[in-house]
Specification:
Length: about 140
């Protein structure tokens, strides 16, 4: 993940504080909302800086980010489907990489991946096929 997105989140938090100071007057509700939103953006931005890799794959399977800084390894045998979900809503198109592991569904957008979800899906499918083929050859 590039540094641009975490920087935008941190700048957004700073902009909220400046905006409330400039126009917030003495309304405590605006202060509480701005501080809450600002803290959320700061936490989100810091998470992106400290743990930028949200998805990794190797011959054993896929490791996905879970929660703030957790990781979960999904063996290839546990992954049921890898696909790209494309949607167009109000003139805005979005693409998300979906990794379906049965009881869990993991979604990643281009900002989290650093490249187009389609490219990652193709690479994961190729790696999965190679690994599954190697397992099948070893059992025969």
């Amino acid at each position: 993940m590039k540094l641009a997105l975490p920087a935008v989140k941190l700048l957004g938090a700073a902009a909220l504080v400046v905006l409330v100071v400039a126009v917030g007057r003495r309304d405590p509700v605006q202060w509480v909302l701005a501080v809450t939103a600002g803290l959320g953006l700061v936490v989100w931005g810091v998470r992106d800086l400290l743990h930028p890799v949200r998805l990794a794959a190797d011959t054993t399977g896929v490791t996905v980010a879970v929660g703030f800084a957790g990781r979960r390894h999904l063996p290839w045998s546990q992954i049921e489907r890898i696909r790209v979900d494309r949607r167009a809503r109000r003139g805005i198109r979005s693409e998300l990489l979906e990794i379906d592991a049965g009881e869990s569904l993991h979604l990643f957008g281009a900002p989290e991946l650093g490249v187009a979800p389609e490219d990652v899906a193709l690479a994961l499918q190729r790696l999965s096929e190679q690994c599954q083929g190697a397992v099948d050859r070893d059992h025969h």
